[in-house]
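#help-structures
NK: newbie question, is this the right format to request a structure? protein is Exodeoxyribonuclease VII small subunit
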Amino acid sequence: MAKKTPTTKPNFEKALSDLESLVEDMEQGNLSLEDSLKRFEKGIALSTECQQALQNAELKIKQLVEKNGKLLEQDIELDA
């Protein structure tokens, strides 16, 4: 089995878009129980992927600044 590489993983925006599409499909209420369960399962996986991507981004946003030979962690304020 081939290993997943960063280029084969969907990016955050694609995963979020797919998740939103799944939610819209389920909210319409036209799916069978089996299809709803399949979409729910896929939605959980996409949600987990998005949460992990956000956590990774948060870690990258934190900068290490060298001051007097010590590394200090500084958070960057982002406009939400």
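mod (FA): yep, format's fine, and the tokens are attached above. Residues 12-74 form one domain.
NK: thank you!
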